[in-house]
Design brief:
The chain has 139 residues and is an alpha+beta fold. It has 2 domains: 35 residues, N-terminal domain of TfIIb; 97 residues, 2-Layer Sandwich (GMP Synthetase, Chain A, domain 3). Helix content is 32%, strand content 34%. The chain contains 3 helices and 6 strands, in the order βββαββααβ. Strands 1-2-3 form a 3-stranded antiparallel beta sheet, with no helix packed on it. It has a 3-stranded mixed beta sheet with strand order 4-5-6, with helices on one face. It is globular and about 50 Å long. 19% of the residues are buried.
């Protein structure tokens, strides 16, 4: 299946991307940027892709996530093109029904089998991950 996208220049470095399903995203860069840069969107896409997998896998185990976020840090190699050569994902879960085995299984399945963004980036960068699990909720 072929996927398509279009990116239109608005002004300065501001761009608007549109997917083949009509979804839009604004991109920008520089000191007065009003949106994420394309490189920043790559890191967000990686986190978003693996998070969606984790939500699905944990949901199939019939466990409830109270709160979930991923912090991403990336090292740039310097020079041009200034690519990311190391990326680290820190998964943060809160939920009284969650346990280490389930979290590790969800992350491993995502990173090794399902997340296509991870599969593409792992060819260009070292990607590592860790997780934090807090079973105590503030309810």
């Amino acid at each position: 299946m072929t996927k398509t996208a279009r990116v239109d220049w608005i002004e300065g470095y501001r761009l608007e991307g549109k997917t083949d399903s009509g979804k839009t995203v604004l991109m920008d860069t520089g000191e007065n940027a009003v949106a994420a840069s394309p490189a920043q969107l790559i890191l967000q896409a990686l986190a978003g892709c693996t998070m969606m997998d984790c939500v699905l896998i944990i949901g199939k185990a019939r466990k409830k996530i109270e709160k979930f976020w991923v912090d991403v840090s990336a090292e740039e190699c310097g020079g041009h093109p200034n690519i990311f050569n190391k990326i680290h994902l820190t998964y943060n879960f809160i939920g009284s029904e969650l346990d280490d085995a389930l979290i590790q299984r969800a992350i491993n399945l995502s990173e090794e089998k399902y997340c296509r963004v991870h599969a593409m980036l792992i060819k260009a960068a070292e990607i590592t991950s860790s997780y934090n699990l807090n079973k105590h909720t503030n309810s």
